[in-house]
Design goal:
CATH superfamily of the largest domain: Hypothetical protein, domain 2
CATH architecture of the largest domain: Orthogonal Bundle
Order of helices and strands: HHHHHHHHHHHHEEEEHHEEEHH
Radius of gyration: 25 Å
Oligomer: single chain
Helix content: 40-55%
Number of strands: 7
CATH class of the largest domain: Mainly Alpha
Strand content: 5-15%
Structural class: alpha+beta
C-alpha cells in the first residue's frame, strides 16, 4: 500500500474522538479550528462546548456583543481570534444569508481565516480537494521525505504544500487532512516520535537514517520581548461591596478591547514617582484632593506569552468611600460581581485570586 492508503487505514482504527469530528456543519468545524489555533485540544474542547452551548449557530454568535464573546473566550489568549470570529459571523449573516461559503477562495476572504483554516473547512465540511498544512503536517512530511531545509523557509513551505496536495485522497480529502493532523499530534510528535507504531515507518527516510529526532529544522527562533506592567488597584469600600477602577484596552496590542486595572507600562522593573503621578487617573484623583502613592501592599506575577514575557506588579491603593467626581472618562468604577462578567486577561484573574485569598 502507498502512503495515503496506509495513513487512512491507520486513521480508521486510531482516530481521536473529538466533538467536531461527528459533524459536517461548517460553523462547528470553523469554530473548532479557530479555538484550536495556538491551543491544546484538552483545553480547547471545554471552550468549544461553551461556545456551542451559548452560540449554537452563526446567527446567535453574530447577534452577540463583542464583550460577551471576549468574556466567553477569557483564558484562551490571542484575543484577536475571538474578535475575528465575531466579525466573520456578522459577515456571514449579512453578506451570505447566514450560510458559509463553500469555496476555498471565498472562505479565505473571511476575516481570521487563513489558508490552513480555509482548507480544513472546505475539505471537511464540503469535500473540497484542499490539503491542510500546519506544524503537525509539516513535521510528518519533513521526516518522511527527509526535508533538511528549515521548514519556516518560504520555499520549503511551498514544497511541503505541494507534497501534501499530491498525497491527498481526492475521494476523502477531509478524512486525509484529519488523519495527517492526528498522525503528527499523536505519533510523529515533536520531541520523541513513536516510530515503532507509525503506519508509514517502513519507508520514512528520517527514521531510516536515524535522524527523526533532529527533524524538522527551523531557522527562526522566537525572540521573547520583556515588558513591565504596573497595574493600579485603586479601590474603595462602597455599600456592602468593594469598588475599583477599570479601563478598556484600546491600542492595537495584546488584550485589545479587554478590561484591566489602570496600567502604567515602564521600561524596567521600577515605577518612578513621576511616572506614577503623570498617569491620567492619578492626575484626576489628585485634582480631587487625594494624595496618592503606591506604597501599600503590592503583588508580583510573571506571565509568559508566545513572544512576550510580562513582569506584572499590582499596587493596592485604597481610597475613602467618598464620592469621587471629575475623573477621566476612560476609567469606570466596578465591583467584583460586575467585573466577573467582563472580558479580561487571565493575568488580572491571577491577581484577584491571590488578593481575595489574602483578605480571608
Amino acid at each position: 500500500m502507498n502512503f495515503t492508503s496506509r495513513l487512512l487505514q491507520w486513521y480508521n482504527k486510531n482516530q481521536r474522538e473529538l466533538p467536531w469530528r461527528d459533524t459536517k456543519d461548517p460553523y462547528k468545524i470553523w469554530l473548532s479550528e479557530i479555538i484550536l489555533q495556538q491551543t491544546r485540544i484538552a483545553q480547547g474542547i471545554q471552550y468549544y462546548y461553551r461556545f456551542v452551548e451559548k452560540f449554537p449557530n452563526v446567527e446567535s454568535l453574530a447577534a452577540a456583543t463583542e464583550d460577551e464573546v471576549l468574556s466567553l473566550w477569557q483564558g484562551l489568549g490571542y484575543y484577536s481570534r475571538a474578535r475575528n470570529l465575531h466579525e466573520t459571523a456578522k459577515t456571514i449573516v449579512s453578506n451570505h444569508n447566514g450560510r458559509f461559503p463553500e469555496t476555498y477562495n471565498e472562505l479565505l476572504a473571511l476575516k481570521g481565516i487563513g489558508p490552513y483554516t480555509a482548507a480544513a473547512i472546505a475539505s471537511i465540511a464540503f469535500g473540497k480537494n484542499f490539503a491542510t498544512v500546519d506544524g503537525n503536517v509539516s513535521r510528518v512530511i519533513a521526516r518522511y521525505f527527509l526535508i533538511i531545509e528549515p521548514i519556516d523557509d518560504n520555499n520549503t513551505q511551498k514544497q511541503i504544500k505541494k507534497i501534501a496536495a499530491d498525497l491527498i485522497d481526492p475521494e476523502n480529502p477531509g478524512m486525509f487532512n484529519q488523519a495527517m493532523m492526528d498522525l503528527g499530534a499523536t505519533v510523529c510528535k515533536p520531541g520523541k516520535p513513536l516510530c515503532n507504531i507509525c503506519p508509514i515507518n517502513e519507508d520514512c527516510e528520517a527514521r531510516m537514517k536515524g535522524i527523526e529526532n533532529e527533524l524538522p529544522l527551523k531557522k527562526n527562533k522566537v525572540k521573547i520581548k520583556e515588558r513591565f506592567f504596573h497595574f493600579l488597584f485603586i479601590c474603595r469600600e462602597g455599600e456592602n461591596k468593594k469598588e475599583f477602577f477599570v479601563e478598556k484596552r484600546q491600542d492595537n496590542d495584546i488584550w485589545k478591547n479587554l478590561y484591566q486595572l489602570p496600567l502604567i507600562e515602564t521600561s524596567g522593573v521600577f515605577l518612578s514617582d513621576e511616572g506614577f503621578k503623570e498617569h491620567p487617573l492619578i492626575l484626576s484623583l489628585q485634582a480631587n484632593g487625594f494624595d496618592l502613592w503606591p506604597g501599600g501592599k503590592s503583588y508580583r506575577f510573571e506571565h509568559l506569552l508566545t513572544h512576550q514575557r510580562i513582569y506584572a506588579f499590582f499596587h493596592v491603593i485604597p481610597l475613602p468611600a467618598d464620592d469621587i467626581s471629575g475623573t477621566d472618562d476612560t476609567f469606570q468604577w466596578v465591583d467584583f460581581e460586575t467585573f466577573s462578567e467582563m472580558g479580561k486577561p487571565v493575568l488580572i484573574n491571577k491577581f484577584f485570586r491571590k488578593y481575595l485569598s489574602a483578605q480571608k
